[in-house]
Amino acid sequence: MLFGVVRPHRRAVVGGGLLALVGGLAGLLEPLAAKAVVDALGRGGSLWGPIGVLTLVVLGGAVIATTGAYLLERTAESVVRAARERLIGRLLRLRVGEVDRLKPGDLMSRVTSDTTLLRAVAGQGLVDGVNGAVVLLGAIVLMGFMDPVLLGATVAVLVVVAASMALVLPRLARANERAQAAVGDMGSVLERALGAFRTVKASGAEARETAAAGEAAGRAWKHGVERARWEAVSGMSAWLSVQIAFLVVLGVGGARVAAGDMPVSSLIAFLLYLFYLTFPIAQVAEAATAWQAGLAAVRRMREVEVLPLESPEGGVVAGAAASVSLRDVRFGYGDAPVLRGVSLEVPSGGMTAFVGPSGAGKSTVFGLLERFYEAEDGVVAVDGVDVRRWPLAELRGAIGYVEQDAPILAGSLRDNLRYAAPEADDEEIMAVLARTRLDGLVEALPDGLDTRVGHRGTTLSGGQRQRVAIARALLRRPRLLLLDEATSQLDAANEAALKEVVDDLARTTTVLVIAHRLSTVTGADRIVVLEAGEVRAVGSHEELLEVDELYRDLAAVQFAADRNAGV
Ligand SMILES: Nc1ncnc2c1ncn2[C@@H]1O[C@H](COP(=O)(O)OP(=O)(O)OP(=O)(O)O)[C@@H](O)[C@H]1O
């Protein structure tokens, strides 16, 4: 998995690694060049040559080593970027159902925080690990030539230490993974609290949310400390291994020298080699711990990468009003059924209203039409074609969808209106604004269409937000318009105006409206009464008043409420 992340950059890694190596070797030449300068001084000969060589070696070595280090760090950044881009590319293509399940704050931390751990894996970490391992092996081979018995003693010590490292490393990986998971939890808590900022304040929940985020930060700390502990153990065992090997070699070698089995010079050389091993062993141990962190990150990123994606095929195709049909559609978000065999025919054009008690499944029908979710059984068809057969982008391109919460994205009002139709010009925008009775608002705003609307549409009222959402959907020239509770937040005058707009639209487009306020849909071509995931009745307002008891009740409650409110 880890090498898969680095593989596309292997050339830069090898190139950077070689440069770093050459730079290091140049360091070995420096004493020789310095010696040449001193010799030349002693001989009284010309100094230009040796000083030139020394300068070349020092400067050349520095430049080469620096270039190598830069290349490696650059590669590490590229690895991080590639991982981020891959994750970002997937995030917005995830299915709605998957994102329902996951926590956005945690998903974000995987893109922003986990990916940074890859930096240590790629680039310098990788090269240090490989270089350290090569030097280690080379030194061991040379030591073998010098004295196989002492090498045996050394290797025995190293094997014990390697075994203890093998025990430590998985724990290190686990601590890393838990620390990262805690960072993800912290993101989730903060995302939740910032997403409902006013509710948090109105509920006096600042201290509780702060404590919850603090608790996650505490867990991140705890696992971070655990990681530090295992890192200390792994560093210490690397250091200890050399010390123990040193003592063992001194003991065994001393005895062999005393017995006359080996010359003292060999023992000294062997000990020097052993000393020389300290650095590569530390390098390998450090690289191994960095890889554990990288591995934890890759695992968490992988969890996102294996989630199923939507395919973005198709484009917006203009056309006439669409027809809709549902045949015995069954669906549930979890085990509990939400739609229990809904059948419905909506011809092209006209207005169809959905009414029924809260939780009856009205919004769910819209979710299936947009293919945010797929029916478990039965067929949802637009223009007579099963939505599963439609190229997804084409299907969604044909539909204008106004959500219940009508979200506004931070940016200018113009950007918000053009969100679903980026190519719309100001003339089209103004025409749609006039239809949704927003033209007066835009004129009153200091910067007109360029006015910035904040995060979640602050600076706009609830009713304005909803009309902006409707205008946004209309700019797309939908063949099928889905309005979810679109009129619930409008005042009486605006509601009447919007009713006109919707009636007007229904002449050229198929309009489906979910309405709690029956007054807005009494003129609908057909009203579908949904109850507990089933279609109870379909008909006009007058027909339903006569035949359907639930509808009669809904109407009675609604109109009584309106009378009391003086509407
Ligand atoms: N994303 C979701 N995940 C899980 N359950 C959901 C989800 N959305 C809705 N439900 C459940 O499905 C059922 C139907 O919800 P739906 O939103 O379709 O009802 P509705 O008729 O539109 O209600 P309302 O009029 O209150 O908006 C409810 O019981 C709800 O709890």
Give a structural overview.
Residues 14-293 form the ABC transmembrane type-1 domain. The chain has two domains: 2-305, ABC transporter type 1, transmembrane domain (ABC transporter transmembrane region fold), CATH 1.20.1560; 324-565, P-loop containing nucleotide triphosphate hydrolases (Rossmann fold, 3-Layer(aba) Sandwich). The model has no long low-confidence stretch (mean pLDDT 86). The chain is an alpha/beta fold. The protein contains 20 helices and twelve strands. Strands 6-9-10-3-11-12 form a six-stranded mixed beta sheet, sandwiched between helices. Strands 2-1-4-5 form a four-stranded antiparallel beta sheet, with helices on one face. It has helices at 2-6, 10-43, 48-91, 96-101, 104-112, 118-121, 124-146, 148-195, 197-202, 206-258, 264-305, 362-369, 392-398, 413-417, 426-435, 439-444, 462-475, 492-505, 541-547, 549-565, and strands at 324-331, 339-346, 351-355, 377-382, 385-386, 399-402, 411-412, 452-453, 480-484, 510-514, 526-531, 534-539. Helices cover 64% and strands 10% of the residues. A hairpin with a 7-residue loop joins β1 and β2 (339-346). The chain starts with a helix and ends with a helix. Adenosine-5'-triphosphate binds next to α12.
